[in-house]
Amino acid sequence: MNDIALITGATSGFGRATARRFADSGWSVILIGRRQERLDELQRELEDKVPVLTLALDVRDDEAISRAIADLPDAFRQVKVLVNNAGLALAPQPAQEAELADWHTMIDTNVTGLVNVTHALLPTLIDTGAGASIINIGSVAGKFPYPGGHVYGATKAFVQQFSYNLRCDLLGTGVRVTDIAPGMAETEFTLVRTRGDKEASDALYRGTTPLQPEDIAEQIFYVATLPAHININQLEIMPTRQAWSKFAVDRD
Ligand SMILES: NC(=O)C1=CN([C@@H]2O[C@H](COP(=O)(O)OP(=O)(O)OC[C@H]3O[C@@H](n4cnc5c(N)ncnc54)[C@H](OP(=O)(O)O)[C@@H]3O)[C@@H](O)[C@H]2O)C=CC1
Ligand SMILES: O=CCS(=O)(=O)O
């Protein structure tokens, strides 16, 4: 039987590229996202190669998530790799100008959604045992503060610490946990963050060389297929043309 990967946020960006990467190597894939038509499209693309199951779900809906995981068909039940990728940033403006609803959406998706899926799948992953992996998509924003990062960066700091704490509890089960923390990558992320402002999104990536979704998918696949005795705790990945900057100082 094929190995099975469950990927959240598979309708775009990192998640879609990761689905393709695993399918290219013969893994069965379970694809989660809210946009049914995107899931259907990806299923049509991949199903000649491998078994594909799509689940049109919102990761914030804990009941729907746990029901879907409990009802997985036999051929997709023994998940080996969970890629917790679904997530988003909103409200690029300063904290004092941000809408509370946008803060809630980021927390509900990046934190609550991620723990919903993890909680539902933990028994399966423990049952799979040695070689199983939870790969959580964090961000450099979880470590390095920047203006407008407010709640988004804080949700990604949660992802890092949750990943490390999970490792402590899963010690002895064989289940590995990794926090992958990418820097600037060209996906629909900025389009979502700017609420559909294509010009702002294009401008961010123009004249530089951001990471591409396939770059991150390759790292996810690498981490997931290392020998079972190796756990990458964290992988921080930036484009060569991105680095940190100096501290800001308020002056008279
Ligand atoms: N691009 C970047 O620069 C970076 C991105 N990241 C992180 O990478 C992850 C993937 O983002 P990226 O590929 O860039 O962005 P995209 O916007 O291209 O993809 C985001 C994916 O998340 C899914 N998603 C969002 N909300 C939900 C939800 N409530 N339930 C289910 N699925 C959801 C979307 O699917 P749908 O809308 O169909 O539900 C989509 O498939 C995110 O966690 C992001 O924070 C981290 C570092 C850098
Ligand atoms: O997580 C996304 C990368 S950044 O926009 O926060 O640098």
Residue-averaged pLDDT: 98
Note the beta-strand portion: 5-15%
Please count the helical segments: 8
What is the assigned CATH homologous superfamily?
Answer: NAD(P)-binding Rossmann-like Domain
Unreliable sequence segments: none
Helix content: 40-55%
Tell me the number of structural domains: 1
Using the coordinates shown, work out and report the CATH topology: Rossmann fold
Shape: globular
Major sheet details: 7 strands, parallel
CATH-derived architecture: 3-Layer(aba) Sandwich
What series of H and E elements makes up the topology? EHEHEHEHEHEHHHE
Alpha-carbon distance between the two ends: 67 Å
Strand order of the largest sheet: 3-2-1-4-5-6-7
CATH domain class: Alpha Beta
Rounded to the nearest angstrom, the radius of gyration is: 18 Å
Notes on the structure:
With 252 residues, the chain is an alpha/beta fold. The protein has one domain: NAD(P)-binding Rossmann-like Domain (Rossmann fold), CATH 3.40.50. Helix content is 42%, strand content 14%. The protein is built from eight helices and seven strands, in the order E-H-E-H-E-H-E-H-E-H-E-H-H-H-E. It has helices at 13-24, 36-46, 62-70, 100-128, 150-170, 189-193, 198-205, 213-224, and strands at residues 4-8, 28-33, 52-56, 81-84, 133-137, 176-182, 234-237. It has a seven-stranded parallel β-sheet, sandwiched between helices. Helix 1 (13-24) packs across helix 8 (213-224) and helix 4 (100-128) runs parallel beside helix 5. The radius of gyration is 18 Å and the shape is globular. The N and C termini lie far apart (67 Å). The mean pLDDT is 98. The site of the ligand O=CCS(=O)(=O)O has 5 residues, from loops.
